[in-house]
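I hope you will forgive my troubling you with a question about protein structure. The record follows directly beneath this note:
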Amino acid sequence: SADEAQDDKPLKLKADLVTVITSVTDSAGNQVDDLTQKDFDLYEDGSAQDIAGFYREGQIPLRLIFLFDTSGSIRHRFDFEQRAAAQFFRNVMRPGDQAALMSVSSEAKMELQFTSDVEHLVTTLGQLKPQGATALYDAMIMAARYMRPAEGRHVMVVLSDGTDTVSTSTLAQALSEVQKSDAIIYSVHSTGVAPSASVQDLAGEFVLKAMSEDTGGRAFFPPIYEDQKKEARELDEIYKRLAAEVRAQFVLTYYSKSESRPGSFRAIRVDVKRAGLQVRARRGYY
């Protein structure tokens, strides 16, 4: 693959390639989108790999699934969480992209399958109601298996407090399925974060950070204010940053030089040669 964009036609990824979605920021946290293939080094289990393909986000269509926590814990913020998520769909979607919507309550439910119709997504989002418990890990597995065969960049956005109360699966099992689907997770804390000594709160925050960092994404924690309008503005800014990052992603592909062991986990590291930049990518694959 040439370093420069080849053309505007979306490209398909082959199943026998390892795919690594990568985001790069400067020291101020701003997205960097002017890199070329020569700016990256890629390693698997510590061994350098040859980058076979290098694509910018516009060359590979987005396949995004939004997991919206509809459990009772989000009831007091439900309206502006819906509004902020609707605006996110409008900001992030481009021609050729598709998104799906899943509600997460006592069980996971696919509310709307992959579609390019933004207004259909917004309308379906507005029909959600807060109720029940939280089966987050089960929802992640269901979402990962659904998106696995889809062509394009796989992005999962999770709106939740990170506290799973009723799943039959574990966080480790959920992350394994997400890695197998080549997905990157961005998480947004659903109830806002305030100083607290609650172990449950800290555990939920840890889950959101772990799922995002392991897959190369990022966790966002909206602050709590007495003024809900201020909270809503903060949430809007978070979704704007999230959309900007999704729109500035690079996709690296390579054929592994390692001996393959069925079911084994291979560690991935991506470095950027330009000084002062931070790179995020998934930690490995199965």
About this structure: The chain has six helices and 14 strands. The helical segments are 78-92, 118-126, 136-147, 171-180, 199-215, 228-247. The two ends are 25 Å apart (CA to CA).
